[in-house]
Design goal:
Strands 5, 6, 7, 12, 13, 15, 16 and 21 form an 8-stranded mixed β-sheet that branches. A 5-stranded mixed β-sheet has the order 8-25-24-19-20. With about 450 residues, the chain is α+β, with helices and mostly antiparallel strands. The chain is globular and about 70 Å long. Helix content is about 20%, strand content about 25%. The protein has 2 domains: about 120 residues, Fumarylacetoacetase, N-terminal domain (SH3 type barrels), CATH 2.30.30.230; about 300 residues, Fumarylacetoacetase-like, C-terminal domain (Fumarylacetoacetate hydrolase, domain 2, Alpha-Beta Complex). Strand 22 and strand 23 form a beta hairpin. Bound molecules: calcium ion. The site of calcium ion has 6 residues, from loops.
Length: about 450
């Protein structure tokens, strides 16, 4: 686990006023990384501070020589692959340069204007050009809810509590927040059991509220990442929306898992909150109920058990085209927590590399839909509109529509719907830090 140090001091303030606002996602205690294009067309990596972004390439001479190559790159992978000690040193120097009592950047008017543009003056890009994207299924509540819809008497398959379940996603269709998402066309599940499928625009379009984490240095092919080293190989975390076409999924998923139901688009947030920033918000791993098996030894570590969780709050809201026309604000759909995931991020990474699979800087691993026990925490419409619950699974697919302000209702997403995901960490002792926004708007299908 990363140390808690002076960069986490809740009293610390920045000379950038907007970072000191109590509701800012990006106070000086956060310092999330991003990648952006300037108005002049150049691409840089940067760090969010209040409503501004520190252009690391532009400010490169203020950093130690051994960090300059990494931070003046156009790719975040050069920072992700730094050893942990250098990532910590980089955070400490950025914190120092942005703190209220440091004049080095604050007093250099010319450099300041060049190196700290407003977020509204740049275009935020996809933060890492991930070569691989893997999606897990780490919420036992999500897995049980979804399993209950199809197998009311046997919702959780027998492997679930032993092995972190995942599938290989599609890296080429990762898009940054704000990119419109086209409704997919595909083979849709037969209306009746045993019937023939149809082909057309997806009718059961859904989102999945997920948390992703990016691989740091990673491992060579044929080697593994032991659980004791896993935290060092995780760079940071970000919001992810794994858009899902349920009618395509239902028809195609057996026996090899999701395919075209997921690969038409996955939206990622532009901001990556580092594991250094998250140090004050680590918590115990999910407490397995009595009678559940313990993980195998290669997935077991005392510090993972005591601090492998992340106390991260997640919120989903919807804004339909009609709501926007009427000037109505986004409507909250759910509010969940990442605390109660059955598998920790270290266990997911360690398991992924346990066969010798090489994990590479910038690879994205996502958690799977984050749902908790209560209904208001369900992280996708498939679960939200389902009439059953964990204690009373209802066979079949009875669904109740969600009522929206302005008189509309939804069971699944309509064209023009905008799904807005946010997340933050907060506790009594430390400054609240936010994850920014991960959003996308549905465009109609093209036949
Ligand atoms: Ca998913």
């Amino acid at each position: 686990m990363r140390p808690i140090d002076h960069t986490h001091n809740p009293e610390l303030t920045s000379w950038i006023d907007s970072a000191n606002a109590p509701d800012s996602d990006f106070p000086i205690q956060n310092l999330p990384f991003c990648r952006f294009q300037t108005a002049a067309g150049s691409i840089s990596i940067g760090v969010g501070i209040g409503s501004l972004v520190l252009d690391l390439a532009a400010a490169c001479n203020l950093f130690a020589p051994d960090l300059r190559d990494a931070i003046s790159s156009r790719s975040l992978k050069s920072v992700m692959q730094l050893p942990v000690a250098q990532r910590i040193a980089l955070r400490q120097r950025i914190s120092e340069l942005l703190s209220a009592d440091c004049g080095e950047l604050q007093d250099d008017t010319e450099l300041r204007e060049r190196a700290v543009p407003g977020q509204d003056q740049v275009q935020l890009l996809i933060p890492a050009q991930s070569r691989d994207y893997t999606d897990f299924y780490a919420s036992v509540f999500h897995a049980t809810n979804v399993g209950s819809m199809f197998r009311p008497n046997n919702p959780l398959l027998p492997n679930y509590k032993h092995v972190p379940i995942g599938y290989h996603g599609r890296a080429s269709s990762l898009v940054v927040s704000g990119t419109p998402v086209r409704r997919p066309v595909g083979q849709l599940s037969p209306a009746e059991e045993g019937g023939a499928p149809s082909r057309g625009p997806c009718k059961l379009l859904d989102y999945e509220m997920e948390v992703g984490f990016y691989v740091g240095p990673g491992n060579e092919l044929g080697t593994t990442i032991p659980i004791a080293a896993a935290e060092d190989h995780i760079f940071g975390m970000a919001l992810v929306n794994d858009w899902s076409a349920r009618d395509i999924q239902k028809w195609e998923y057996q026996p090899l898992g999701p395919f075209l139901a997921k690969s038409f688009a996955t939206t990622v947030a532009p901001w990556i909150v580092t594991m250094e920033a998250l140090a004050p918000f680590r918590c115990a791993a999910f407490q397995r109920p009595e009678g559940d098996p313990q993980p195998l030894p290669y997935l077991t570590l005392e510090s993972n058990q005591s601090q492998g969780g992340v106390d991260l709050q997640l919120q989903v809201a919807i804004s339909t085209a009609a709501m926007r026309e009427q000037g109505l604000p986004p409507h909250p759909l759910s509010s969940g927590s990442f605390r109660d995931m059955y598998w920790t991020i270290s266990q997911m990474l360690t398991h992924h590399s346990s066969n010798g699979c090489n994990m590479q800087p910038g690879d994205l691993l996502a958690s799977g839909t984050v749902s908790n026990r209560d209904r208001g925490s369900r992280g996708c419409l498939l679960e939200m509109t389902w009439d059953g619950d964990l204690d009373n699974p209802v066979p079949g697919t009875q669904r109740t529509a969600i009522q929206l302000p302005g008189g509309e209702e939804r069971k699944f997403l309509a064209d023009g719907d905008r799904v807005i995901m946010t997340g933050f960490c907060d506790n009594d002792q430390y400054r609240r830090i936010g994850f920014g926004t991960c959003q996308g708007t549905i465009l109609p299908a093209t036949e």
